[in-house]
Write a structure and sequence with these properties.
The protein is mostly beta strands. It has a single domain, classed as Beta Barrel (OB fold (Dihydrolipoamide Acetyltransferase, E2P)). It has no helices and 8 strands. The strands form 2 sheets. Strands 1-8-6-3 form a 4-stranded antiparallel β-sheet, with no helix packed on it. The termini are close together.
Amino acid sequence: MEKLEIISELPGIFYRRQAPDQPFFKKEGDLLKKGDVIGLVEVMKSYFEVKSGVAGTLTKFLIEDEAAVMAGQVIAEVTSS
Protein backbone atom coordinates (compact mmCIF):
# COMPACT_ATOMS: atom_id res chain seq x y z
CA MET A 1 0.00 0.00 0.00
CA GLU A 2 1.19 3.44 -0.91
CA LYS A 3 0.47 6.63 1.06
CA LEU A 4 -0.42 9.56 -1.22
CA GLU A 5 -1.33 13.19 -0.50
CA ILE A 6 -3.99 15.60 -1.72
CA ILE A 7 -2.48 19.08 -1.81
CA SER A 8 -4.18 22.47 -1.96
CA GLU A 9 -3.38 24.41 -5.10
CA LEU A 10 -4.68 27.67 -3.60
CA PRO A 11 -4.50 29.55 -0.30
CA GLY A 12 -7.83 30.18 1.42
CA ILE A 13 -10.35 28.56 3.72
CA PHE A 14 -10.96 24.81 3.37
CA TYR A 15 -14.52 23.50 3.62
CA ARG A 16 -15.41 19.81 3.78
CA ARG A 17 -19.04 20.40 2.75
CA GLN A 18 -21.06 22.53 0.32
CA ALA A 19 -22.96 24.33 3.12
CA PRO A 20 -23.19 24.06 6.93
CA ASP A 21 -26.42 22.01 6.71
CA GLN A 22 -25.03 19.62 4.08
CA PRO A 23 -23.10 16.36 4.65
CA PHE A 24 -19.34 16.18 4.17
CA PHE A 25 -18.18 15.51 0.61
CA LYS A 26 -16.04 12.63 1.93
CA LYS A 27 -15.17 11.19 5.33
CA GLU A 28 -12.11 9.36 6.59
CA GLY A 29 -12.39 5.72 5.53
CA ASP A 30 -14.32 6.51 2.33
CA LEU A 31 -13.19 5.05 -0.98
CA LEU A 32 -12.09 7.65 -3.52
CA LYS A 33 -12.04 7.55 -7.28
CA LYS A 34 -9.74 9.82 -9.21
CA GLY A 35 -11.56 13.13 -9.61
CA ASP A 36 -13.81 12.81 -6.53
CA VAL A 37 -14.42 16.13 -4.75
CA ILE A 38 -13.24 16.06 -1.13
CA GLY A 39 -13.82 19.73 -0.30
CA LEU A 40 -13.73 23.36 -1.39
CA VAL A 41 -11.21 26.16 -0.98
CA GLU A 42 -12.71 29.63 -0.71
CA VAL A 43 -10.65 32.49 -2.05
CA MET A 44 -12.20 35.98 -1.93
CA LYS A 45 -15.81 34.66 -2.03
CA SER A 46 -15.04 32.27 -4.92
CA TYR A 47 -15.12 28.51 -4.29
CA PHE A 48 -12.81 25.99 -5.96
CA GLU A 49 -13.23 22.23 -5.78
CA VAL A 50 -10.46 20.13 -4.26
CA LYS A 51 -10.39 16.85 -6.17
CA SER A 52 -8.56 13.63 -5.52
CA GLY A 53 -5.88 13.01 -8.11
CA VAL A 54 -5.71 9.35 -7.12
CA ALA A 55 -7.95 6.40 -6.27
CA GLY A 56 -7.78 4.75 -2.87
CA THR A 57 -9.01 5.08 0.71
CA LEU A 58 -9.16 8.50 2.37
CA THR A 59 -7.21 7.79 5.53
CA LYS A 60 -6.82 11.19 7.19
CA PHE A 61 -7.68 14.88 6.85
CA LEU A 62 -4.78 17.11 7.92
CA ILE A 63 -6.81 20.34 7.64
CA GLU A 64 -9.92 20.87 9.75
CA ASP A 65 -13.22 22.00 8.25
CA GLU A 66 -13.30 25.82 7.92
CA ALA A 67 -9.56 26.16 8.63
CA ALA A 68 -7.07 28.26 6.70
CA VAL A 69 -4.95 26.42 4.15
CA MET A 70 -1.88 27.55 2.23
CA ALA A 71 -1.02 26.74 -1.37
CA GLY A 72 1.06 23.54 -1.40
CA GLN A 73 -0.22 22.40 2.00
CA VAL A 74 -1.34 18.79 2.38
CA ILE A 75 -5.10 18.58 2.95
CA ALA A 76 -5.56 14.82 3.18
CA GLU A 77 -3.78 11.48 2.95
CA VAL A 78 -4.95 8.63 0.74
CA THR A 79 -3.82 5.01 0.81
CA SER A 80 -3.82 3.23 -2.52
CA SER A 81 -3.28 -0.47 -3.10
